[in-house]
Every structure is written in structure tokens, then in C-alpha cells.
Amino acid sequence: xxxxxxxxxxxxxxxxxxxxxxxxxxxxxxxxxxxxxxxxxxxxxxxxxxxxxxxxxxxxxxxxxxxxxxxxxxxxxxxxxxxxxxxxxxxxxxxxxxxxxxxxxxxxxxxxxxxxxxxxxxxxxxxxxxxxxxxxxxxxxxxxxxxxxxxxxxxxxxxxxxxxxxxxxxxxxxxxxxxxxxxxxx
Length: 186
Known about the structure:
Blueprint: E1 15-20, H1 27-37, E2 44-50, H2 56-60, H3 68-74, E3 80-83, H4 92-96, H5 119-134, H6 155-171
Parallel strand pairs: 1-2, 1-3
Helix pairs in contact: 1-5, 5-6
């Protein structure tokens, strides 16, 4: 794929609208930072609909005159819409514990008992979103500021998160990457 290395910018950014709850809405800002990190200067957050504890239908059901997501979609101003449904962490989270710097137990990935993600988990999610949206790897980019306060929040942690996200995206059939058109830059 053309422009698949971190030192070459992609031609054109995406216009992203994010709808979600406190487990997801923050991805919008992280995507901007990741886009800037690989030279995508025109990646734009068109809007964010943040409703605490929401289901996707609640974002759809916002009254028409207040529904910025619907308006942006109807006007053709959105290339990517990110949505998040409400689920609880599953046993897969435990697999990360002990293999990632600063993560010794499952609770280290969260900021509270509700399961709000730590910076480490937020970055993992943002990398997955970035890889799927731009169909390119960011493996090898410098550690973002979002990880600076995390235990183990250094280049080693960043590289592990980048590689975990890249492996998840390129190996999952629903990511749309199974045709081999996206190549790692790491």
C-alpha cells in the first residue's frame, strides 16, 4: 500500500465523528494526535456526542434539532463514524496483565471499578482505531504524551501497544485487512 511508513504522510486525512460514553468518546482527541504524528495534518474531528453510560441508540435518539451527529452525516461531512456500545471487560483483559510494562493485574488497566480505561488502554484502543481508519501501521512512532504519566509509560510500553493493536487489526477478519493490502511499517 502506498505511504505505509511512519515517515511518509498519507494523502488526506479523515473527517471523524465520535459517539460514545466515557469508555470511548476520548478516542477522538487521540486520533488527532496520532494523525499529526504520522504527518496527517488534515485529520479532523467533526464532532463528539458524549452521553454517560449510553447505548448507541441514545445518540441516534437525540432530538433532531440537537443531534449534531445526524446533521453531520446527512450533510455528508463525515468519513468515519465511531460508535461504542456498553459492555463490561471480559477475560481477555487478564491476558494483558503481566505482559505489559506497568500492568501486573487486570485492575491496572482501569481507573475505577466501573472499568473506565487507563491511558494505557486508551492508547491501545486509539491505535486500533487509527490502524483501521487509515489502513496503515503507526508501529515505531514515538511515545505519545498520553502515556507519560503511566507506570512503564515509555518507548517499550508504546511499542508493545502499537504491536498489539497492529496484530489485532491485521489478524481479525472484521477489520477489513485480511486481503493483505495493509503492511506493517515496524
